[in-house]
């Protein structure tokens, strides 16, 4: 399946954004897209290009923060052979490559002040000066810029030119964070589950509790974080229905780990299926020690506890070893919980147990946690 060519979702925000893109697509005016990292600013820029009358031309993206400032001028405007050390041939810049189409200047807020001056001149005069050339090159390009920075604050700090800001901000577009449109999350999950599914395999699915947890998660990395998570799960759990209780905590976003702990305490571990990824995958990720190691056998646990207790004297009438061991185990877990202030993860580390095993024992003995 191809990557999306439109802004996915049926929330009012997503619908309004698609209408705005459709309205301004054929304008020649410069567009400034603002929004947090990972919200899909390049996707919006591509949508503008693909709905415009410039579709027959090229869409040329460039990340202004990813190229050293001393090379950015050559990347944007091109250079002539011999114009500087290493210029062994003429090079066409991104603006000239985008002639008749669209250039997308991503992370424009990271551009140096001297380059901002040169870009302003290009936007005003619609010509470029390749490095080392004495001939100006006219260009016919739709310019779309994007940034995750607050450019008005950057202007106040002296890091961005006010005149360039007004030249870019003719048609402003805001790319919303995912937390502002949670109703779109199920559709995004379904799309990327199909996008990343293995060949000849079904797409992964989520049980209702996990889907609800994902819909209520804040997604600080926005859609980029969601797509990365779907790629990870589709690789490790191809074709399966996922239950949050069965996912190793290290494979979950940090913000979902407390949700997982709460569900484990309320519902207990998931026993319907084994969702542990292959050992070789966990080993490569550095997770084997915490996820895939077997628990000590019962007789080993009993030996440790008996040694710790100094081999108590067996009364003449005998005793229930099982009850005695359970009492000792409960007492040790209580002490560990108290020492770790009820934190399940820290308690599990103190006792060298998997968290799921510890939670089973906490439920068994009806112990309180934080």
Descriptive overview:
By secondary structure, the chain is of the alpha/beta class. It folds into 3 domains: 12-176, Rossmann fold, CATH 3.40.50; 179-291, Helicase, Ruva Protein, domain 3; 298-365, Arc Repressor Mutant, subunit A (Orthogonal Bundle). It is 45% helix and 9% strand. The chain has helices at 12-24, 41-50, 69-77, 94-97, 113-125, 151-156, 162-168, 185-196, 208-216, 222-236, 257-267, 279-284, 288-291, 298-308, 321-339, 344-351, 355-365, and strands at residues 31-34, 59-63, 102-106, 127-128, 137-138, 142-147, 171-174, 205-206, 241-242. Helix 8 crosses helix 10 and helix 15 (321-339) crosses helix 16. 28% of the residues are buried. Residues 287-297 have low confidence and may be disordered.
Strand content: 5-15%
User: How many domains, in number, for the residues?
Assistant: 3
Estimated helix fraction: 40-55%
- The termini sit apart by 45 Å
Trace the largest sheet across and list its strands.
2-3-6-1-7
Quote the CATH topology of the largest domain.
Answer: Rossmann fold
Structural class: alpha/beta
- Average pLDDT confidence is 86
Q: Based on the structure, what is the oligomeric state of the protein chains?
A: single chain
Question: Count the helices. How many?
Answer: 17
Uncertain stretches: 287-297
Strand tally:
9
Shape label: elongated
Compute the CA-based radius of gyration: 29 Å
- CATH architectural grouping of the largest domain: 3-Layer(aba) Sandwich
Write out the CATH superfamily name of the largest domain: P-loop containing nucleotide triphosphate hydrolases
Q: Which CATH class of the largest domain is shown?
A: Alpha Beta
Order of helices and strands: HEHEHHEHEEEHHEHEHHEHHHHHHH
Q: Summarize the main sheet.
A: 5 strands, parallel
């Amino acid at each position: 399946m191809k990557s999306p060519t439109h802004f996915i979702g049926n929330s009012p925000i997503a619908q309004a954004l698609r209408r705005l893109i459709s309205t301004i697509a054929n304008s020649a005016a410069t567009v400034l897209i603002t929004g947090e990292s990972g919200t899909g600013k390049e996707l919006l820029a591509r949508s503008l290009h693909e709905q415009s009358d410039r579709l027959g031309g090229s869409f040329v993206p460039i990340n202004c923060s990813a190229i050293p400032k001393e090379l950015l001028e050559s990347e944007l405007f091109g250079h002539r052979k011999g114009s500087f050390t290493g210029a062994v041939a003429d090079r066409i810049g991104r603006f000239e490559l985008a002639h008749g189409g669209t250039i997308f200047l991503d992370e424009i807020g990271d551009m140096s002040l001297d380059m901002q001056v040169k870009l302003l001149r290009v936007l005003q005069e619609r010509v470029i000066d390749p490095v080392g050339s004495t001939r100006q090159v006219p260009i016919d390009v739709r310019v779309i810029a994007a940034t995750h920075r607050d450019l008005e604050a950057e202007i106040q700090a002296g890091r961005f030119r006010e005149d360039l800001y007004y030249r870019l901000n003719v048609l402003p577009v805001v790319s919303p964070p995912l937390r502002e449109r949670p109703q779109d999350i199920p559709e995004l999950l379904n799309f990327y589950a199909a996008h990343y599914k293995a060949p000849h395999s079904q797409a992964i699915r989520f049980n209702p509790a996990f889907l609800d947890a994902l819909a209520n998660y804040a997604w600080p990395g926005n859609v980029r974080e969601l797509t990365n998570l779907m790629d990870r799960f589709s690789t490790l759990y191809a074709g399966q229905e996922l239950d949050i209780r069965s996912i190793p905590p290290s494979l979950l976003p940090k913000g979902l780990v407390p949700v997982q702990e709460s569900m484990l305490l309320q519902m207990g571990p998931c026993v319907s299926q084994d969702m542990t990824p292959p050992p070789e995958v966990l080993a490569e990720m550095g997770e084997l020690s915490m996820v895939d190691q077997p628990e000590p056998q019962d007789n080993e646990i009993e030996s440790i506890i008996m040694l710790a207790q100094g081999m108590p004297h067996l009364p003449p009438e005998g005793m229930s070893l099982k009850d005695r061991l359970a009492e000792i185990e409960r007492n040790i877990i209580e002490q560990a919980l108290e020492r770790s202030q009820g934190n399940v993860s820290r308690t599990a580390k103190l006792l060298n147990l998997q968290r799921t095993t510890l939670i089973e024992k906490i439920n068994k003995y009806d112990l309180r946690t934080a």
